[in-house]
């Protein structure tokens, strides 16, 4: 397992170094930066600011009075861990990569353990291979919080499978303060509780476990709104967090209010208009409904059903959360990383040709993602 992870990091590092070698001067680095400087661009710089300075007590405003992009959009879990290394004199660009790679290895090991409970060991192993070579796997070795989130996600799912609900609470808390996910966990636990209650005749659901699920679910919901509350307290603005998040949509749809379950419809309309599709306003909601329907069908497909109900509840809960609050853009690709347990379903076919093809497609996808999202080409509007 560790060998697989290490080899995949070598491949990804070679790809990143190739792009660093042709990188022109950027906002963050000079031309042809070294690996660690190249791994600390984009949102990594926000995490650097948080780990060194913290959060602003006053929200920055644009010239027209709207909340500008600022550090409150970046949760404190990951920079808090990085700050430990900074305390010992290790610069951010090195510390952030160390933390990300360490958590990524832990996530890979936990993913194998998680999937080995519902799939044959060799299938679980190949799912980890896919995890390690996936198009988004470069994010596992840069200054982003995804690998830390994935580590605590896998640990939370293991505790859920074991029905260790009280141990689940602090793990969900850390995950929710690393990347937004508390409400997704709450949705997962609600589905889990309903399922256990409905099937209690064949799978006993004693009172103590019912209380545990309820406490864990309510705690997850609280964790889901905790950071917006902290931002409110820290700035004096009740909408500090949501206004900050919405600042990243301005380049697409201008200044808007957060409308739950509306962003994907707005996004579909924007993208269709951008590629000049006739009848975009009518076609956009149709495409979104079809997309949601396809997602539901996949959740009930035989390969995904083999993952077990708890993993499927996570996929559903996180899917509902993304649909409710996120605007689809280039950074949405990395927001799909928490769907990683679904790789178990993709790994089921045992054809050698099929598996080699998936690995090669994953590596090619890394090149594509680096070219589109990470490598900075002039006025780049496709941030990772």
TrEMBL record:
<keyword id="KW-0472">Membrane</keyword>
<dbReference type="InterPro" id="IPR007315">
    <property type="entry name" value="PIG-V/Gpi18"/>
</dbReference>
<keyword id="KW-0337">GPI-anchor biosynthesis</keyword>
<feature type="transmembrane region" description="Helical">
    <location>
        <begin position="165"/>
        <end position="191"/>
    </location>
</feature>
<keyword id="KW-1133">Transmembrane helix</keyword>
<feature type="transmembrane region" description="Helical">
    <location>
        <begin position="211"/>
        <end position="234"/>
    </location>
</feature>
<keyword id="KW-0812">Transmembrane</keyword>
<feature type="transmembrane region" description="Helical">
    <location>
        <begin position="356"/>
        <end position="377"/>
    </location>
</feature>
<keyword id="KW-0328">Glycosyltransferase</keyword>
<feature type="transmembrane region" description="Helical">
    <location>
        <begin position="123"/>
        <end position="145"/>
    </location>
</feature>
<keyword id="KW-0808">Transferase</keyword>
<comment type="pathway">
    <text>Glycolipid biosynthesis; glycosylphosphatidylinositol-anchor biosynthesis.</text>
</comment>
<keyword id="KW-0256">Endoplasmic reticulum</keyword>
<feature type="transmembrane region" description="Helical">
    <location>
        <begin position="313"/>
        <end position="336"/>
    </location>
</feature>
<feature type="transmembrane region" description="Helical">
    <location>
        <begin position="277"/>
        <end position="301"/>
    </location>
</feature>
<feature type="transmembrane region" description="Helical">
    <location>
        <begin position="246"/>
        <end position="265"/>
    </location>
</feature>
<protein>
    <recommendedName>
        <fullName>Integral membrane protein</fullName>
    </recommendedName>
</protein>
<feature type="transmembrane region" description="Helical">
    <location>
        <begin position="84"/>
        <end position="111"/>
    </location>
</feature>
